[in-house]
Structures are given as C-alpha cells and as structure tokens.
C-alpha cells in the first residue's frame, strides 16, 4: 500500500531553499532535493555541458542518475543575489571537490538558480550550471572583494 504524499516543508526564503538544495546534493537525498523544486511543467535544469531538461520527471531522473554515481561534494560560494517580493535570482560560484589520485581536486561551476515565491514558500524553478573557466572564477573572486 502506498503512503500518502507528504507535502514539502515550507521554505521561508530563497536562501533556505538554496541551502536545502545544496545539502541534498551533498548527501545524495533525491526526495529532499526535489522538495526544493516547484511542480510546474515549465521548471528547467541544465547540468554542466548537458542538455536542457524541462519538467519534474526529467529533472528527477537526471538527479537520480547522478546520485547513482555518488554524492556531489559541492559548496556554494560567492553568491550574488537579486530578489523581488516574489522572485529571486542567485548567481553562484560552486566549488565541486572530487577525489583524485593525489588527494582532492577542486573544480568550479558557475550556476544560476531561480526561485519563485509560491503558496508553499520559495521553490526553485530553474538551475543552470556551466563549467567555470579560470578567467570567470578569477573575475567573480575580484568582484566579491571590490567595495563600492
């Protein structure tokens, strides 16, 4: 017998949704990760060097395939936020740590996360990640240290 679907927890802010998204990636928790996403047919995700995925089913299947290979040791850094009362866009420099023969290697990914405020709180509606070039990473690090 199937248990009834439990509604996802209310996410009070885009920052809370983003924290849950990255913690779910770090622990390989597919249900927790998908609880961050909106349930609209138009939600979309682009993994580094991957195709555009549209809809809950395609996004869930892609993260399920990723988690079948292990967790993702990813850490959001240098977040630039733009927020209105009902939407938020976060530009994130992600540090992805991978085990290699000589220890741990850090790779960089530049991601854009888009959130909408819904009756159930803030939900992710788009995640677009691209491999970060050394030039982009250097520029983002400089931007974060400049005072205006």
β-strand number: 6
Q: Give the number of domains.
A: 1
What is the chain-wise order of helices and strands?
Answer: HHEEHEEEEH
Query: Overall pLDDT, averaged?
Result: 87
What does this structure look like?
This protein is 30% helix and 39% strand. The chain is an alpha+beta fold. It has one domain: Nuclear Transport Factor 2, Chain: A, CATH 3.10.450.50. Helix 1 packs antiparallel against helix 2. The longest helix has 14 residues, at 14-27. The radius of gyration is 16 Å and the shape is globular. It starts with 13 loop residues before the first helix and ends with a helix. The model is unreliable at 1-6 (pLDDT under 50).
């Amino acid at each position: 017998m199937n248990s009834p679907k439990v509604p996802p927890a209310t996410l009070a802010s885009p920052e809370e949704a983003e924290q849950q998204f990255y913690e779910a990636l770090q622990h390989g928790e597919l249900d927790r990760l998908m609880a961050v996403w909106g349930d609209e047919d138009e939600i979309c995700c682009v993994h580094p060097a991957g195709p555009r995925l549209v809809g809950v089913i395609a996004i869930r299947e892609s993260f399920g395939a990723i988690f079948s290979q292990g967790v993702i040791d990813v850490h959001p850094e240098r977040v630039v936020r733009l927020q209105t009362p009902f939407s938020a866009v976060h530009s994130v420099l992600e540090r992805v740590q991978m085990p290699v023969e000589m220890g741990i290697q850090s790779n960089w990914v530049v991601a854009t996360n888009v959130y909408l405020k819904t009756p159930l709180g803030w939900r992710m509606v788009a995640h677009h990640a691209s491999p970060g070039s050394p030039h982009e990473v250097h520029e983002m690090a400089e931007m974060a240290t400049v005072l205006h």
